[in-house]
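Below is how a single chain appears once it has passed through the pipeline. First comes the sequence as given, then the structure the pipeline wrote out for it. We keep one example in the README because the format questions we get most often are answered faster by looking than by reading.
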Amino acid sequence: MIDFTIMFNIFGAVVTPAGVNFSIYSKDATKVSLVLFNSQDDKQPSHIIDFDPVLNRTGDVWHVLVPGIGAGTLYLYKIDGPYDPMRGLRFNYHKYLFDPYAKAFTNGSVFRSYNELRKNGFSLNEKGEIQDLSDFPKCVVVDDNDFDWEGDRPLGIPLDQSVIYETHVKGFTASANSGVGEDSGTYRGFAKKIDYLKKLGITAVEFLPLFEFDENENYNLNPRTGETLVNYWGYSTIGFFAPKTSYSFDKTPGGSVREFKQLVKELHKAGIEVILDVVYNHTAEGNEHGYTFEFRGIQNNVYYSLPEARKEYYMNFSGCGNSVNCNHPVTYQFILDSLRYWVVEMHIDGFRFDLASILTRMGNGNVLNGDVPNLTVAINEDPVLAKTKIIAEPWDAAGLYHLGMFPGGPNNRWSEWNARFRDDIRRFLRGDNNSITAAATRVCGSSDCYNHDGRSPLASINFITSHDGFTLNDLVSYNSKHNEENGEGNRDGSDNNFSYNCGYEGECVNPKIELQRIKKIKNFFLYLLVSQGVPMILAGDEMRRTQKGNNNAYCQDNGLSWVDWELAEKNAGLVRFASVLINLRKNHRVFRRTSFFPGFYEKGDSHEISWYDVKATVPDWNKMGNFLGFRLDGLGNDNDFYVATNIDLYDLTIVLPSLTDNKKWYRVVDTSFDSPDDILEIGKEEVLSEQRRYVLFSGASVVLMSK
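Resulting structure:
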């Protein structure tokens, strides 16, 4: 392997033949101490090493080589300097601080430790120094050379061949019926479910945040059970180089790194890429009332965006209390170092950037664009990340909205979560008036958003559901959100869901309603997988996972969020439908274009996509009614496909487009049919006895293939 370690080994704890070299950045510190521990349960440090400001400082980097120690050493920092919030400085030598470059953490909870101290009114120490560190996480020295990758490399699957599966490492196997025994909820447990993912046909897992975070920062109570809620999703990072320790079966110091690497290696063996949902836009330290345990105590006015005239406060574009000052040179380099580390040492294939628009802001909150060298351009152009998938959530919580224009500079590689695809397809399949034209645009790859500056349909990450919102089952089962158990009076979560409960709110035993819901779910899967762009499926949607109407389950680390594996058996027909449909997409390039459809054709040219009304004539887009039909021309390199949907209340007899060269239409999909007739496997398509007309039932979709 090419040795890229120099890129990110300037900082952190680096194992050398002579010992461990520790280094940390702080411009305004007057004193830095390295704090060592013998075990993760130590109440107090075993050794404190004060850095000599002359011998152990180069520029703004404090560093010391400690002989006689190695991998597994536990440590923290204490840093002194001016405490002057008006200047944005918040040094406090009484605070124990994490190394921003730490590669692993021990078990424990920084929030639980500080909450205990606060409960005592800081009576043990007016400066808030924790006296009992037994439950306070420690950083772990890691030697990345102690793992055998057996020749593994990132897979580099082209985006046009990708089918992404968004999932939660813990929640995927945490349920008692997951079948992984004592490994439930761990990296090791997830590895035992790889065969399921392979059979489903997905090509990449997109993990919700697994950079180290502290789930105990949530103080809300579940009003039904009285239990304290948690941060389940993990969008509140503490360790930007460290996989979450509690997701590891191996709880020994550094065990999480080895176990996570093993998971990546096993996924790669199965041909499945690993994409990480990463949170560089804010940290877990919160606003001016938050606890100090990392960046705030290291160099607050560099790492965070602060108001120019009131630097005692924090700019909050994230909605989580603070915003990272992403385009300051030090922070900019830190983020690039983190990304490179995960690619080089962890073999990660891609990243999805949470609230990515914050990455385009300057320290004062002003927005840089793609013409100005900034972090998003640097990520796009970085030589180490050149083959890595980069996906933006192209907005922030303060109204900055970059959908269709996320800045990456020339040769923009960024893909984007396409919320317009989600909303327009939901509205169309719900039967909303005047929704068909927008839906047709989404089917074509959202050219209105991405057909500029050399971008392609692959810039659009298409999704119907994600972790943030209803599951697919709940989208067709609830008209309104039901977030009461989040402890926020049902005020949290979006009210704009474009959902329809099919006539009854919630779980239902009425067979007619259930058939209607299943048909709608299949329609959603169909449009997700035949549309141009890159499809992303929410874990469990293929088996009708439900959150009982909760569309913001960020705090629910329980059965409400976990995958219930009994549903895979109960809804085996739907799992099969999704799997066969994924295989159909993989085997036909007409669904996986790398360029947009031409805007015009010369006389005599074959139209690569043609639109039809129920009579198979050119539609009047102002009078489309409740029917959408289109034909994808294989241009001699693939089969032709005809896709049609009837969202009317009544069945329709539709006229089919005519074929040439003695070809015939074969049925591949009809979402009104029961499994296994709802989708036919490759080679088993059924020729239509009537080649000119087809009865398309109310609320159903059909896919026909020519051959």
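Confidence is low (pLDDT under 50) at residues 1-8.

See the next section for the split statistics.
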